[in-house]
Amino acid sequence: MAAVSRGLLSRITQIFPIRSLTLSSSQSLPHSNFFLTQRFSSEITGAPSRIIEAKPVEMSGISKRTGIIAVKCGMTALWDKWGARVPVSILWVDDNIVSQVKTVEKEGIFALQIGCGHKKAKHLTMPELGHFRGQGVDLKRKLREFPVTEDALLPVGTELGVRHFVPGQFVDVTGITRGKGFQGVMKRWKFKGGPASHGCSKAHRKGGSTGQRDDPGKVFKGRKMPGRMGAEQRTVKNVWVYKIDPARNLIWVRGQVPGAEGNFVFIKDAHYKKPDVSKLPFPTYLSPEDEDPSELEPLVADLGEVDPFMLAE
Amino acid sequence: MQSIRSSSTRLLQRNRFSISNTLLRFTSSSSSENELRKLGGGYDPFPSTRAFDSYLISSLTKAVPFSSPLPKQSFMYSSRYFSTVGDSVPRGFPVVSAPDVSPRIKFKRLDKTAKHIMQIVDKEAVEEVRTRREIPEIRPGYIVQLKVEVPENKRRVSIVKGIVIARRNAGLNSTFRIRRLVAGVGVESMFPLYSPNLREIKVLDKKRVRRAKLYYLRDKMNALKKH
């Protein structure tokens, strides 16, 4: 309430000169009062202008869907149906739910805050508990915001599953990389080092020169030197989704994914290799009521009818 | 808001099952008091379950007679036992006996859960390959004949015959090495056990060896080496 009156007072000083400030807002001129109330009625009453429903919508070319949070389980290798070896990372999507919707009217952007995992109440701070209680969502371990377009908004409490992605599409996977500790310049910045012999004195793995001499007389900022490596956020782009298991919420993607086993990764649609708009469930995969998720078979990417090895001959 | 209702009912069931699973381990009333204190202290998003859970606890403790040979100190570790004992049986859903539906896993440490999931997935993949194809036991020292289909080579089926000198167990990626003489030259090749390109494996003979890895044959069976 204090904020509302503060805003009102600032607007009154903008419109009227300072001498009218002696009057309180209720005692101001009747026409100005009417003008003020007409202008600020929506802000004072705070009527929600947006109703968000979860129903399938046509996806346009500029729409952006939300991403999901998963746990990296590990890597293995599988054989696809033509007998070729596919190195895969297994990602476990553990109970993703929409925990907050951000709109332009209130927060300034369109975004969905997704929560993943489970957490006990005794392990959460009071502000976090209040946030979950206010939104009416159960306690999650990891929260992350994904900016979306306006047509991709989902209501609070919508569950996102593994079927949000389609096997055969490309995704970008973001994660915190493994920490490597304090590393030298050869590993951290891929320097070539010095020669191993031919008289090289004690400089086999060093960085060499760090700059010029008297002018500039300093080492420039950003000079690559040894330091702590890893444990930072990186994105691996254009990862091919090989297989999806809706019964157990697992995704198999080809190749490596940043981070160690047990860490959270954030999966989004690929930015460069954009998937086919008609095949993706938009805004997300909304399962019909009679479908039992534990009975579904894993879906494998379509590898085509032609044997790629025979083609090469 | 059907999705919220369904998720909340599922969580209700999970809470109920977790309480009942872990309570079966404790037979004394003082540990149940710890239970109630813990429930009362923490924030409960579902106030309806608290009444049910306290009723559950009281009914269970009334049913089970008070018999505790455990000393007093063990109750202080009840919170630790809570998690590890509960972990041996997957908390949440009861264990389903159907082989293709794995039980819901709810551990505290995520990397342990991740490794567990990897194990389950790997075992299932191995089972699937084993049921579809007959793979005999291969140990070092066996003379083995394989029919290998090479996809790069226009899918020709070649016959490989040699002695198994090593076997590496790694779930689905288990491999074994075969040493054979090809045109007078010793050649070692490595094959994944569960590869779909191995059409047929036939064990011809079993030699008695006293090692797991027969790398000494490289010096012994070497035709190129001059003595």
From TrEMBL, chain A:
It comes from Eruca vesicaria subsp. sativa. It comes from the Eukaryota. Pfam families: Ribosomal_L3. Keywords: Mitochondrion, Ribonucleoprotein, Ribosomal protein, Transit peptide. Residues 193-228 are annotated as: Disordered. InterPro entries: Ribosomal_uL3, Ribosomal_uL3_bac/org-type, Ribosomal_uL3_CS, Transl_B-barrel_sf. It is found in: Mitochondrion. GO terms for cellular component: mitochondrion; ribonucleoprotein complex; ribosome. This is Large ribosomal subunit protein uL3m. Belongs to the universal ribosomal protein uL3 family. The lineage of its organism: Eukaryota, Viridiplantae, Streptophyta, Embryophyta, Tracheophyta. Its main location: mitochondrion.
Automatic annotation (TrEMBL), chain B:
Pfam families: Ribosomal_L19. Keywords: Ribonucleoprotein, Ribosomal protein. GO terms for cellular component: ribonucleoprotein complex; ribosome. Belongs to the bacterial ribosomal protein bL19 family. This is Ribosomal protein L19. It comes from Eruca vesicaria subsp. sativa.
